[in-house]
Amino acid sequence: MKSFILMLTFLTRIPFPVRFEFNNNDFAKGLLFLPVIGLIIGIPMYLTTLYVELNNPFLMSFLLMLIYIGMTGGLHLDGLADYFDGLFGGRQRERILEIMKDASLGTFGVVGLCLYFLGMFVGLMEVTPLVVLLMPITARVIGLMFCAFGRYPREAGMGQPLVEYGRWYHGATALIIWLVVLFWAGQAYLVAGVVTVLLMLMFYLRTNQVIGGITGDVIGAAIELSQVLWLLCFAVIGGL
Q1: Number of domains within the chain
Q2: Range of 205's domain?
Q3: Alpha-carbon gap, residue 53 to 185, rounded angstroms
Q4: pLDDT per residue of the chain (240 residues) written in tens, 0 to 9
Q5: pTM of the model
Q6: C or N terminus of the chain, fewer CB within 10 Å?
């Protein structure tokens, strides 16, 4: 329970009355709760899509983005921006890691964030409630998989406990359960899920090739990018 609460309060802005002393071991165990936290994030968006009647898809998309950012506090957007800055701003592994660690926002980070928000906005314009509900779950299953199959390329960092705690069977179990859920949901969901996994596998392999591992910024970038890919898959499919 402690690990779940530590991870929930870290990944969301949901207030929790009980405070626990932070330690890396308990925090790392919270990795296994990532999909559950994704469900918690998705429920308000799901209910909004289901019950709020807005005839303007632009307003609905904007509202869903506000809810998502309000739930997460934009936590992973910093990692996404740092990843873009590092990947496109550096040539050598050490320089890329140095840029990613820098707190300042560069040109490539701004471009990456603009593309991200544009992709989210377009993807959320024509979606069903179930697509919205599964979006943050899908992303956090992929985040769990990155931790489970990756290795940490630095000596220390915020993402180190998660990557070192993750084991391949954590990622494999999460993936199998998630694919079964998507199969139950319907063919379009399964197709979108498989396409998202394959594209994020390319992202994973390329990142390993460039920096030799998975950092906290990479995990954050993977979570946010996989959400956009998930949504755009349904835009390409043409709806359900």
Answers
A1: 1
A2: 2-237
A3: 24
A4: 788 988 998 899 988 776 767 778 888 999 999 999 999 999 999 999 999 888 899 999 999 999 999 999 998 999 999 999 998 887 788 888 888 888 788 899 999 999 999 999 999 998 899 999 999 999 999 999 999 999 998 777 778 899 999 999 999 999 999 999 999 999 999 999 999 999 999 999 999 999 999 999 999 999 999 999 999 999 887 644
A5: 0.93
A6: N
